[in-house]
């Protein structure tokens, strides 16, 4: 079953060019995934009583025909593509009122034991979802292999800000995209992204004493590519690859 809900692209979700922003794309994906899980009886509040939560581990965003625009009425669609009891696959689309697929997303999730802060099995929870075989993208989420010559673009010798922490008590997946977006060249942002791939490897938690953003930018006659990495003293938290319109 495809879960679908109407949505308006409000002002606070847009960038300076009146388009759905990069972090807001992740926020809408997170929102419709939560709504679907709530409808299936496996949402945050139900799982919290069991000391569990769904956690995003890999995701691919593809911007297709055009960007969702300020005040545009769209449809958010999402569905489960099944699970091996450890990795649950979820796809999503942002669709215009005329049926254009504007953004397509594929992702992988795990269940976290909130007390142990470790991955646990979700065999019972995944049975609540109707599995739908359709794919939003004809790819699987890749394991990103990062360049060796990335450089530090921001270093924070303090814990993360209060507003970066979400209800699972770690930095929200969309917040990393906000950090990365703010480190991008302005000219690249004016043209907008084509693709974004992320691997979430390690939590950044409120008690982490520091964190760092590393990056590498590449450009040729055809492509603009950005690599980002968020790290803590405990290791690499997030790897990210972005491509942009030339």
Overview of the structural elements:
The chain is of the alpha+beta class and 246 residues long. Helix content is 17%, strand content 39%. It has helices at residues 22-40, 44-48, 123-126, 173-181, 186-191; strands spanning 3-8, 52-63, 73-83, 88-96, 101-113, 118-120, 151-156, 193-200, 211-219, 224-232, 235-244. Strands 1, 2, 3, 4, 5, 6, 7, 8, 9, 10 and 11 form an eleven-stranded antiparallel sheet that branches. A hairpin with a 4-residue loop joins strand 3 (73-83) and strand 4. Helix 1 runs antiparallel to helix 4. The radius of gyration is 18 Å and the shape is globular. It starts with a strand and ends with a strand.
Features:
5 helices, 246 residues, globular, alpha+beta, single chain, eleven-stranded antiparallel sheet
Question: Can you lay out the helices and strands and say which pair or pack?
Answer:
Layout: E1 3-8, H1 22-40, H2 44-48, E2 52-63, E3 73-83, E4 88-96, E5 101-113, E6 118-120, H3 123-126, E7 151-156, H4 173-181, H5 186-191, E8 193-200, E9 211-219, E10 224-232, E11 235-244
Antiparallel strand pairs: 1-3, 2-5, 2-8, 3-4, 4-5, 5-6, 7-9, 8-11, 9-10, 10-11
Order of helices and strands: EHHEEEEEHEHHEEEE
Please compute the radius of gyration using only Cα atoms.
18 Å
The major beta sheet can be summarized as:
11 strands, antiparallel
Low-confidence stretches: none
Count of β-strands = 11
Structural class by helix and strand composition = alpha+beta
Number of helices: 5
Can you give me a brief rundown of this structure?
The protein is of the alpha+beta class and 246 residues long.
């Amino acid at each position: 079953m495809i879960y679908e809900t109407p949505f308006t692209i409000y002002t606070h979700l847009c960038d300076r060019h009146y388009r759905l922003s990069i972090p807001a794309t992740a926020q809408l994906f997170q929102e419709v995934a939560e709504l679907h899980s709530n409808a299936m009886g496996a949402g945050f509040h139900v799982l919290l009583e069991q000391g569990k939560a769904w956690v995003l581990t890999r995701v691919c965003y593809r911007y297709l025909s055009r960007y969702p625009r300020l005040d545009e009425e769209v449809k958010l669609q999402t569905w489960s593509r099944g699970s091996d009891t450890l990795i649950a696959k979820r796809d999503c689309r942002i669709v215009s009122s005329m049926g254009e697929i504007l953004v397509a997303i594929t992702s992988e999730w795990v269940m976290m034991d909130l007390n142990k802060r470790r991955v646990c099995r979700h065999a019972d929870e995944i049975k609540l979802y109707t599995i739908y075989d359709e794919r939003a993208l004809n790819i699987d989420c890749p394991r990103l292999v990062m360049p060796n010559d990335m450089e530090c673009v921001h270093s924070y010798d303090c814990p993360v800000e209060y507003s970066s922490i979400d209800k699972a008590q770690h930095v929200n997946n969309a917040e990393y995209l906000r950090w990365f977006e703010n480190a991008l060249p302005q000219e690249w942002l004016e043209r907008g992204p084509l693709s974004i791939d992320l691997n979430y490897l390690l939590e950044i938690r409120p008690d982490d004493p520091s964190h760092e953003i590393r990056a590498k930018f590449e450009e040729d006659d055809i492509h603009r590519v950005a690599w980002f990495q968020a790290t803590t003293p405990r290791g690499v938290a997030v790897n990210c690859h972005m491509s942009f319109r030339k």
